[in-house]
Design goal:
Layout (H helix, E strand, L loop, with lengths): L7 H14 L4 E2 L6 E2 L1 H10 L9 H24 L2 E4 L2 E4 L3 H13 L5 H12 L10 H26 L4 H5 L1
Helix pairs in contact: 1-3, 4-6, 5-6
């Protein structure tokens, strides 16, 4: 079976992804040689020295691997989101808290931003978007949403299953 050479478009996409994910080349103190992390990746994974030595199939596979590595790094960074100035940092809610809050809002059919802002303002005394809540504020909002969901479920249950006073007294 003949090897299909890598296409120029795949080379461009691969090099772009590599330049965004891998750090710049650096000088190794022990050997005095310049080390390029992307070339180390190519040598380790595909036993080639250059992008041009890859087949089209290997190029597409390498691109997918780099995308997966970058995606897991983005997830790790987003779970540790910290904003603010040095000495005055503010930690934001975790990804799980954000997804949970949005899920509860959806269950309660709070689709409009105004209702969400209003509910958050009622819970923490400050109108904020969900993305800008601190972990403790997010906990307060989650607690309030859970209580609201519990009350709405109880009211719905009463409407669907009416019980007469006679049955309750017996």
């Amino acid at each position: 079976m003949s090897r299909i050479p890598i296409q120029k478009r795949t080379i461009r996409r691969l090099r772009t992804a590599a330049s965004k994910y891998f750090s710049k080349a650096y000088l190794d103190d022990a050997s005095g040689k310049t080390i390029d992390p992307y070339r180390v990746f190519l040598a380790k994974e595909y036993e080639v020295a250059s992008t041009l030595d890859l087949s089209e199939e290997q190029g597409v596979e390498a691109l997918a691997k780099i995308d997966r590595m970058a995606k897991t790094d983005r997830k790790k960074k987003s779970q540790k989101r910290i904003v603010g100035k040095v000495g005055n940092t503010v930690q934001l809610l975790s990804l799980e808290q954000k997804e949970f809050i949005n899920g509860l809002f959806d269950q309660l059919a709070m689709d409009s931003k105004e209702r969400r802002f209003g509910f958050i303002r009622k819970q923490i005394s400050t109108p904020k978007a969900v993305d800008w809540l601190t972990p403790s504020e997010a906990t307060k909002v989650i607690t309030g949403l859970k209580r609201m969901l519990k009350v709405s479920n109880m009211q719905l249950d009463k409407r669907l299953n009416p019980v007469s006073d006679e049955l309750l007294n017996n």
